[in-house]
Amino acid sequence: MSASLDVGPPLQPGDRAPNIVLDAITREGQISLDDFRGHNPVLVGLFRGLHCPFCRRHIAAMAQLDPTLREKGIESLAVVNTPIDRARLYFRYHPMPNLLAAADPERTSHRAFGLPNLEFTENQTEWPHKMGMDAVMTARVDVPGELPEPMNPMVAAEILDKADAYEITEADQQMIATGMGQLVGQFLLDRDGVVRWCFTEVPENGRYMFTAPSSQEVLSAASRIAS
Predict the structure, then answer these.
(1) Where does the signal sequence lie (predicted)?
(2) How does 164-196 read in b/e, with b if 16+ C-beta sit within 10 Å?
């Protein structure tokens, strides 16, 4: 698996977000960031594929927060590294009616926002482009209420997949083969398309891997730009 050595750093507050055009999952047609410019701020969540149990939970949390953000005049858009047919099937059985979602199997949006795709090596770590499996095995991730204790992310993922009864399909395997190390993040854009707040897995040598911002953090940032 090759790293995205030419990608990064992630967009920061004050940077203008590029336009991206993707196939919509939760409605017909396409969604672009230009659809929001001049109209509404938007919270853009760039996630790994639906094969990632941590991302599935972060998307669900984004959906729960969506109505509160809408009250502030802020839209939400969840982008997943999953082929469109597979993504639509998942959302059909796990409906999130009000959440706009789009498929990005090529991870075009992740690169455009400066999120690297980690290369996993045996023991060489050059964060945020390479991570040794020795470092992966000593990492710990916690999902309170679902995991008995903080544990290795690979073991944690197996437990969460089993709890979700999530079966990895061939489409998922294709995404895993090229994007298992894709780093993710959330970006709050104002109505002009300028980043005003962000949260990514990139800072502090991976300290934020598999985590998401708290709802309080998102709402605090939203309040600063709400109409």
Answers:
(1) none
(2) eebeebebbebbbeebbbbbbbbbbbbbebbbb
Q: At what angle do helices 215-225 and 53-71 cross, to 10 degrees?
A: 40
* pLDDT for res 4: 45
Q: What is the DSSP letter of 192?
A: T
Q: Are 186 and 44 in contact (CB under 8 A)?
A: yes
83 found inside a domain: yes
Go through 80-114 and write b for each residue having 16 or more CB atoms within 10 A of its CB, e for each that does not.
Answer: bbbbbebbbbbbeeeebeebbbbbbbebebbbbbb
Instruction: Give the separation between CA 100 and CA 25, rounded to whole angstroms.
Output: 8
How many domains is the chain partitioned into structurally? 1
Could you please report the per-residue DSSP string of 65-114? HHHHHHHTT-EEEEEESS-HHHHHHHHHHS--TT-EEEE-TT-HHHHHTT
pTM for the full predicted model: 0.94
pLDDT tens-digit series, residues 46-70: 999 999 999 999 999 999 999 999 9
Q: Chain-centre distance of CA 149, in angstroms?
A: 24
CATH of the domain at 100: 3.40.30.10
